[in-house]
Specification:
By secondary structure, the chain is an alpha+beta fold. It has helices at residues 2-6, 14-32, 71-74, 89-105, 128-135, 183-195, 235-246, 274-287, 302-308, 336-352, and strands spanning 37-40, 45-51, 57-62, 78-80, 83-85, 112-117, 140-143, 152-156, 158-167, 171-172, 205-213, 219-220, 223-232, 256-265, 294-297, 313-314, 321-322, 330-332. The chain contains 10 helices and 18 strands.
């Protein structure tokens, strides 16, 4: 774990991603006995281990992190009692370590694939198609994202990402403000309309995030761009908001609107994870581990992509700890062998007795 955490891997630093990928490859090879296939993506490499010729279970993770280059110098990997910390330790390098040990413990059986990507934290732009291709035909996908207070993630919200471009007309703010069409003011009107699309009773959030407008403090701004983040637990809600955003109309005469973006990832709905979760609970009981809990996560993962293909997907099988994307993220060291054992037991159970394509036992 120290080797992986100390190998910094910001999502957009190609050179350091390459060194981090080599570190992941070395750890994997030492435990699996084989080299991964390096698959070149835009800005990074993705690593794929194929064990045998009949892939049935896909273990899915990533090695990139959100932490900027140089973070390791002021916040190095360390262990204090039962806590290990360092940038990317919880999300999700501890999960990778657990997965390699789990498959090693099983004797590296036929039927398992391990895919570790390098761009998940920026939306998987070069790995999305690869993930879908590798997952095609498998019976189950097990995702190494960190747990939620120890709970497995049996559902995740889907998301939509949009940019609303507003065009107005510039004029001098002091000499002739009435001649302009104020794009910032139009953006303010649109923000209120956008906010009204949320539905807290359905768990749907519609959030105006970044707003960029204007070029000079004494000029009526001619253009503005508003970023909009949408999260929902069902595809129907994502589609409702998507349709409403596409119907937006300007409030100020002469202003024009152009919407870009759309639904990025459908939700990981509980039905896609329920049978795998029940199997995991059974495995945990047989191993004498603490009872497993389940939870919904507001964020997305690559598990959303595989669930959208209709493949049973269970998330949150990585580390126990806290603080993903936060200063001081940490991993509970004593839980690591437990989670490795759980993953090994779950994979072994699925290879002996798979669930069917409908996600039932």
């Amino acid at each position: 774990m120290e080797l992986l955490v100390s190998s910094e891997s910001p999502s957009e630093q190609r050179t350091h991603l390459g060194m981090a990928a080599d570190a992941v490859s070395a750890v994997g090879k030492s435990l699996l006995g084989s080299e991964p296939v390096f698959i070149s993506g835009e800005g990074c490499d993705h690593l794929l281990w194929r064990l045998g010729n009949n892939p049935r279970v896909l273990i899915l993770g990533h090695y990139d992190t959100v932490w900027p280059l140089g973070t390791i110098e002021r916040w190095p990997f360390s262990v204090d009692g039962d806590k290990a910390t360092g940038p990317g330790s919880f999300d999700m390098k501890a999960g990778l370590v657990q997965a390699f040990y789990a498959i090693h413990a099983l004797g590296c059986p036929d039927g398992v694939q391990i895919l570790v990507t390098g761009d998940e934290e920026i939306g998987s732009p070069s790995s999305r198609v690869l993930i879908e291709e590798v997952a095609s035909g498998v019976e189950a996908v097990l995702v190494l994202e960190a747990s939620l207070d120890g709970a497995l993630k049996t559902s995740r919200k889907g998301c939509g990402m949009y940019q609303l471009h507003i065009q107005g007309r510039a004029s001098h703010a002091g000499l002739d403000p009435e001649a302009g069409i104020n794009a910032t003011l139009e953006a303010a009107h649109q923000i209120l309309v956008v906010d009204a699309l949320k539905d807290t009773s359905m768990g749907t959030s519609v959030t105006s995030t970044t707003l960029r407008s204007g070029e000079a403090s004494n000029q009526v701004p001619a253009s503005a761009t508003l970023d909009i983040d949408v999260r929902a637990a069902s595809i129907a809600e994502l589609e409702r908001v998507d349709a409403a955003l596409r119907r937006l109309q300007p409030m100020i005469e002469g202003a024009t609107l152009k919407l870009q973006g759309g639904i990025d990832r459908g939700p990981l709905e509980q039905t896609m994870a329920s049978a795998l979760y029940m199997r995991a609970r059974e495995v945990a009981g047989n191993l004498g581990l603490p009872p497993l809990l389940e939870a919904m996560a507001g964020g997305t993962s690559d598990g959303n992509l595989t669930a959208a293909l209709g493949i049973p997907t269970l998330d949150g099988l990585g580390a126990v700890g806290a603080g993903a994307h936060s200063e001081g993220e940490w991993v509970q060291v004593s839980a690591m062998p437990q989670r490795a054992a759980l993953l090994a037991g779950l994979v072994g159970s699925l290879l002996v007795s798979p669930i069917d394509s409908a996600g039932t036992l």
